[in-house]
Amino acid sequence: MSQEQFANLVAVVATAVTFVQVVPQVVRLLRLKRTEGASPAWAAIGMVINIGWIAYVIAEEFWVTIPAILAAIISFGLVLFLLWRNGADVRVAVIAGVAVGVASVGLQLVAGWTVLGTVLGLSNGLYLGPSVWAAWRSYAPVGVAPLTWVLTAGEGILWGYYGVLVEAVPIMVYGSTAFLLAALILLRLWIARHRIASELAPPDLSGTP
After folding, report:
1. 3-state SS of 18-57?
2. CA torsion sign, 60 to 66 to 68 to 73?
3. What is the pLDDT of residues 127-164, one digit of tens each?
4. Which of 49, 12, 53 is nearest to 168 (CA)?
5. If I label 15, which of 21, 61, 94, 147 is the partner at 20 to 30 A Cα–Cα?
6. Is the pTM of this model over 0.85?
7. Is the CB of residue 65 less than 8 Å from the CB of residue 56?
């Protein structure tokens, strides 16, 4: 197997992870209808950044990544809708998403695709960062789906490795930052695990004082 073929195999596996990455979060919002610790900015900015990635990978002809990015756009849009439906205030998040989109277009026009791709890789902090903040400031982040962040960490490792194989620095940056920020959220969920379990425990109906 050539390095190019192996890189494509890694990208296919990463794409499969990306397709299901946000599904646990969608399921949690549908099932629990609770949003504590979940970040609307993560969903809104994540959707916009992935639209930017679509433009970048088309320009650079990384065709194998397109299905994963389309899946991410749809998933983030669905999460944003569910957060809004479940009572979260999404207005600031939507404004932030629009601002990121305008800034990305301006950056590409001024500096070109390579610079935009690098910034998109670094901009993981723009949409994963709010999730880290929301999870750590929540007393019991019951609205956060742990499996989504396990998958995000795994996706980061895979896309980072793919970036190494194809010598694409923006994709390397994307993968490494995704892994590190997902690890921070998983650490918060582990620290708050007893609080989360207490919040999700069924009420005591036995009447025992």
Report:
1. HHHHCHHHHHHHHHHCCCCCCCHHHHHHHHHHHHHHHHHH
2. positive
3. 788 899 999 999 999 999 999 999 999 989 998 898 88
4. 53
5. 94
6. no
7. no
